[in-house]
Amino acid sequence: MDKIIVKGGNRLEGSVRAEGAKNAVLPVITASMLASEKKSVITDVPVLADVYTINEVLRNMNADVHFADNTVSVDATNQLTTEAPFEYVRKMRASVLVLGPLLARYGHAKVAMPGGCAIGSRPIDLHLKGFEAMGAHVHVGNGYVEVNAPGRLHGAKVYLDMPSVGATENIMMAASLAEGKTIIENAAKEPEIVDLANFLNKMGAKVVGAGTETIRIEGVEKMYGTEHSIIPDRVEAGTFIIAGAITGGNILVENAESEHLRSVISKLEEMGVTILEEGDGLRVIGPDKLLATDIKTLPHPGFPTDMQSQMMALMLNAYGTSVITETVFENRFMHVEEFRRMNAKMKIEGRSVIIEGPADLQGAEVAATDLRAAAALILAGLTADGYTRVTELKHLDRGYVNFAEKLAGLGADIERVNEDGDQVNPFADVVNMNDSAIAELSQS
Ligand SMILES: CC(=O)N[C@H]1[C@@H](OP(=O)(O)OP(=O)(O)OC[C@H]2O[C@@H](n3ccc(=O)[nH]c3=O)[C@H](O)[C@@H]2O)O[C@H](CO)[C@@H](O)[C@@H]1O
Ligand SMILES: C=C(OP(=O)(O)O)C(=O)O
Question: So what's the ipTM on this one?
Answer without folding.
Answer: 0.99
